[in-house]
Amino acid sequence: MASVSKPEVAAGPPHVYKLALVLALAYLLTIVYASLQPFRGWRLPPEDLYGFLTAAWPRYITLEDVLGNALAYVPLGFMLALGLRQFFRPGFSVITGALIALAVSIGMESIQMFLPARIPSNVDVLANGTGGLIGALAAPLFSPSQMIGARLIVWRDRVFRPGALIETGLLIAGLWVLTHLNPLTQIFGTGNLRATFDLPVYFFHTPGLLLSAEAAVVFFNLLGLGLMLSTLLRPNVRRGLVIAGFILAAIALKMIIAAVFAIPLGAFAWMTPGVMLGFVAGTTLLMSLLLLGHQARLWLSLLCLLLALAAINLAPDNPYFNMPPRMASGRYSHLLSFSAILRALSELWPLLALAYLVTLSRQDRGQQTPAS
Fold first, then answer.
1. Whole-angstrom Cα distance, residue 127 to residue 123?
2. Are residues 221 and 305 in the same domain?
3. How many structural domains does the chain have?
4. 30 lies in the same domain as 172
5. What are the phi and psi torsion angles at 160 (to 5°)?
6. Is residue 53 part of a domain?
7. H helix runs in the chain, sequence order
8. Is the same domain home to 28 and 166?
9. At which of 101, 134, 155 does a domain end?
10. Looking at the structure, do residues 121 and 176 belong to the same domain, yes or no?
């Protein structure tokens, strides 16, 4: 008697789903990091830890606030639902991913009961859960077995080296672009940990020192990102063109977000003399460094990201970019929950990239490196 084969749970490359789960975990840690700031002032909560769930709705609820909280959980629901495809069918993975996102929101709001600076809200839970559901529902469209997902895989295989670790690097580079959605951070200025951890100020603000600091931050971040991307590309790909695409995408996001939230000088608020100096010097040197061998580019990328991290934390405070979010325009202040996640992503990105580059170097050391 012929046996009936069991229906396949997931179609497509298994490492895509595994990578989605890893990314979901990384984003979950980012949510935790953002939800528990500031990390001080802990107190004993009321006896009814979950009382906020049945409390009356806040008197003032704005559409912008609801949309911002929903948007913050869309990526989590999306990545969970996509990653769970390796275990469940599409429908069940969507439901499970949405429920996990909702549980995370309830957990974060509950822990905020221990922090006097945070106010838990049932409206936030509802908005977060809705965002997680929207992201989970969108995940099947990007499955490798669907048209959109299949086309993305074809493009990825044509441009980038094979392997799950390379895809991890591509996602980290994509996260770097997304860090520019925060209008109150310097362009290319990831890794600013001073405010979160109360790091001491070593230098006082002067126009000349600020110009040099901005230039150094842009210069080293540009080199670090460009060199890291170059190690992910296939040898026959035009490296400069792909790197330029990522950089231009980051600049476009920065311009759009600055224009939308009415930052002074509008879309060109990022274009300071220090930024332009670092940008011109960085792009000029990057074109020459792309001619180096694979291992040289990899280790130079790691060194540049370390120097960029040091530069932004040693630089004098910039009175504009260190503005508290609540002092920004009204439209931006409504998106505090989402901006906290963007800020956390911006602060943690260099650490994620450095850990990745060390891992990539260990893998490449044990095999033949691609032609430079």
1. 6
2. yes
3. 2
4. no
5. -110, 155
6. yes
7. 14-35, 63-83, 90-111, 122-138, 147-159, 164-178, 194-197, 207-230, 239-260, 273-289, 294-314, 330-333, 336-365
8. no
9. 155
10. no
Question: How far is it, in rounded angstroms, from Cα 88 to Cα 86?
Answer: 6
Nearest to 80 by CA among 99, 66, 108, 107: 99
- Residues 87, 153: Cα–Cα separation, whole Å: 21
HSE of 202, CA atoms in CB hemisphere, 13 A: 10
pTM as predicted: 0.71
The answer to whether residues 45 and 184 belong to one domain is: no
Provide the sign of the torsion angle of the four alpha carbons 67, 68, 71, 77, taken in this order. Answer: negative
The verdict on 251 and 306 lying in the same domain is yes
190 close to 265: Cβ distance less than 8 angstroms: no
Spatial CB neighbours of 371, under 8 Å, sequence gap ≥ 6 = 235, 294
Q: What is the domain extent for residue 187?
A: 161-365
Instruction: Look up tokens 């990745």; give the residue.
Output: 356
pLDDT tens for the chain, 372 residues long, are 444 444 444 455 566 787 788 888 888 887 887 777 766 667 776 666 666 777 776 776 777 678 778 888 998 999 999 999 888 888 899 999 999 999 999 888 888 888 776 777 888 889 999 999 999 999 888 877 777 777 777 877 889 988 878 888 988 998 899 888 877 778 898 988 887 777 777 777 677 788 899 999 999 999 999 999 999 999 888 999 999 999 999 999 888 877 766 555 567 777 888 999 999 999 999 999 999 999 999 999 999 999 999 999 988 776 555 544 444 444 444 445 566 777 888 888 999 999 999 999 888 776 654 444
**Domain end: 139, 155, 171, which one?**
155
Measured in whole angstroms, how far is the alpha carbon of residue 181 from the centre of its chain? Answer: 10
Same domain, 131 and 200: no
Based on the domain organization, do 200 and 347 belong to the same domain?
yes
Note the residue count of the chain.
Answer: 372
